[in-house]
Model the fold of this input.
Amino acid sequence: MSNLDPMSTRQPDPDPILEADVFARDCASRPVLQNVASRWGVLALVALRAGPYRFSALRRRVDGISERMLSQTLQTLERDGMIHREVQQTIPPHVEYTLTELGAAVAEQLAGLIHILESNIDTITAAQAEYHRE
Amino acid sequence: MSNLDPMSTRQPDPDPILEADVFARDCASRPVLQNVASRWGVLALVALRAGPYRFSALRRRVDGISERMLSQTLQTLERDGMIHREVQQTIPPHVEYTLTELGAAVAEQLAGLIHILESNIDTITAAQAEYHRE
DNA sequence: CGGCATCCGGAACGATACTG
DNA sequence: CAGTATCGTTCCGGATGCCG
Done:
């Protein structure tokens, strides 16, 4: 299974190094970084900065994500302590997702990153055109 | 080909929307976000904050990356205007990679993100343990 | 409504060998 | 030293169908 799958049995970690240095191959923070920086993880986290979202609303907000990937992404982020999942036992069921304190801090960095990219999209497009022209 | 492959022919962009909103499916900044937030892209950019690096040194710094992926990652980041590639025409060849102004701004955000994750690794590990216990 | 199980094609990735 | 070429494997992620 994918490492994005929260249900996957984590490999035995033959020698789980606890040093917090992402540059080290076996650092525990690396897989977490991949999860929050993943294709949909970034967008889900940043979307949730606007406040609590329900599943369907979040799916509409993150344009192009499939049901399956949203579900997987949310589970992974919940497992990593980035978001909180609150279930209303009603019919039909209600589920609300909110950022944890940690998730909010992470989302803020990601929002900053996105802002930089969006406001420099012209520079980037120009660089791409130049690269291909050569 | 992979969208991480800088040589890949970009799809014809049937209707290239220029709005800078990553939440929109066809926003131009989305693929760029994926590149800089990719598994190796993040580490390469943050590593380069320490100064210019040569290929081999960067490979040693980013523990676990293969030659192939480092090469691809650097080309993609160069194409997107994040890094600059300077070739010394000597024997043996010398190639130095440095961050562009844009790349430095992006790398700073990513470094902040990594710092948050590293300094909260205990919280994260606890959340993961709790999630699996249930 | 908010999921989960299954299938499956294509994309990403790693190992290795080779080159200027 | 700094890559490229090729190959084989893994895994992401979309589509579909079912359930409480």
Q: What stands out?
A: Strands of chain A lie at 53-54, 83-88, 94-99. Confidence is low (pLDDT under 50) at residues 7-17 of chain A. The first helix of chain A runs from residue 29 to 36.
